[in-house]
């Protein structure tokens, strides 16, 4: 079954399912020849186990350990989890004591104020791990750090893990996506792409409004990232770029999934399928592009795609015809 069906049956979003796959927690049993995820009933059972362990309060790393067939028994895992929880409580208690001291001092007490500054200065460490820890502590602290400082650090951050921590800290700062407006206009495409990744972490219409202009960005990869981010928010404006991604590849699978999500959330299935049909009929479309477009139809409601697939089942391109017949058979 495709990722959309798994999402509907399990209640776990397609985005989270892809995240689980990246972590190695839930890797589909197979993929189609065109790269689409193909889940089995066994994968669904595995997904239920993952969600059950997460409901107990386990981190994803602990969930992975618990599901490892070679890992220690549940009693050892629970004991380890309890020990980690005690250690975290000790760290949080120490942090709370420092913050309580900071909030109780007079405005002129520089010693306490400088303690907070030292934490923020950790963002300037030459060691990526220290920058990541500083960002996580700032995000967890009610005092936090000025959004401008977090954005400056984020736009310059090259480490994947530290950048992820900075994005999280920025969301936790409570400043809102609006603080990224100028960064999303940065003339440097690398910095602009980092700002886009941060904006995608914010919920709500403001973040969507900030992302949409990047659908016209001069840099192709930024346009693609913006389309996928907007598609995850069911923004219909992303449809043309997403359709172009299906035609051109290599991110056609992600784009097809985003198109299907837009179709479901905005009741735009008919309009999107008309656009796909038009792309299939484009006389300059390559065989590979038409094959990807046909594969993308597998993400939509079989009842809606049946007429188009029936026509494609007699297509002169054998690969397109075979794919259409397979999807028709699967949908019955």
UniProtKB/TrEMBL annotation:
The keyword Phosphoprotein does not apply. SMART domains: EZ_HEAT, HTH_MERR. Residues 1-69 form the HTH merR-type domain. The keyword DNA-binding applies. PROSITE patterns: HTH_MERR_1, HTH_MERR_2. Gene3D superfamilies: 1.10.1660.10, Leucine-rich Repeat Variant (1.25.10.10). SUPFAM superfamilies: ARM repeat (SSF48371), Putative DNA-binding domain (SSF46955). Pfam families: MerR_1. This is Transcriptional regulator. The lineage of its organism: Bacteria, Bacillati, Actinomycetota, Actinomycetes, Micrococcales.
């Amino acid at each position: 079954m495709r990722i959309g069906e798994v999402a509907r049956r399990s209640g776990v979003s397609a985005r989270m399912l892809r995240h689980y796959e990246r972590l190695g927690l839930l890797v589909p049993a197979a993929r189609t020849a065109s790269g689409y995820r193909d889940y089995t009933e066994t994968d669904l059972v595995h997904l239920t186990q993952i969600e059950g362990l997460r409901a107990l309060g386990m981190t994803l790393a602990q969930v992975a350990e618990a599901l490892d067939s070679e890992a220690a028994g549940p009693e050892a895992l629970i004991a380890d989890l309890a020990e980690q929880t005690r250690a975290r409580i000790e760290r949080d208690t120490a942090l709370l004591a420092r913050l309580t001291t900071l909030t109780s001092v007079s405005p002129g007490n520089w010693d306490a104020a400088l303690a907070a500054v030292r934490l923020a200065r950790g963002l300037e460490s030459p060691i990526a791990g220290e920058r990541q820890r500083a960002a996580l502590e700032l995000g967890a602290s009610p005092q936090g750090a000025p959004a401008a400082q977090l954005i400056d650090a984020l736009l310059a951050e090259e480490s994947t893990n530290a950048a992820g921590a900075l994005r999280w800290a920025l969301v936790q700062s409570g400043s809102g996506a609006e603080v990224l407006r100028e960064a999303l206009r940065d003339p440097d495409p690398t910095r602009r792409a980092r700002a886009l990744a941060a904006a995608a972490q914010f919920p709500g219409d403001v973040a969507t409004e900030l992302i949409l202009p990047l659908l016209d960005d001069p840099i192709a990869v930024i346009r693609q990232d913006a389309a996928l981010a907007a598609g995850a928010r069911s923004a219909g404006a992303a449809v043309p770029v997403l359709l172009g991604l299906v035609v051109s590849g290599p991110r056609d699978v992600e784009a097809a999934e985003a198109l299907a999500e837009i179709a479901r959330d905005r009741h735009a299935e008919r309009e999107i399928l008309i656009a796909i049909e038009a792309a299939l009929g484009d006389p300059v479309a390559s065989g590979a592009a038409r094959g990807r477009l046909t594969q993308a139809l597998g993400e939509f409601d079989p009842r809606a795609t049946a007429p188009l697939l029936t026509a494609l089942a007699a297509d002169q391109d054998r690969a397109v015809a075979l794919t259409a017949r397979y999807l028709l058979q699967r949908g019955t």
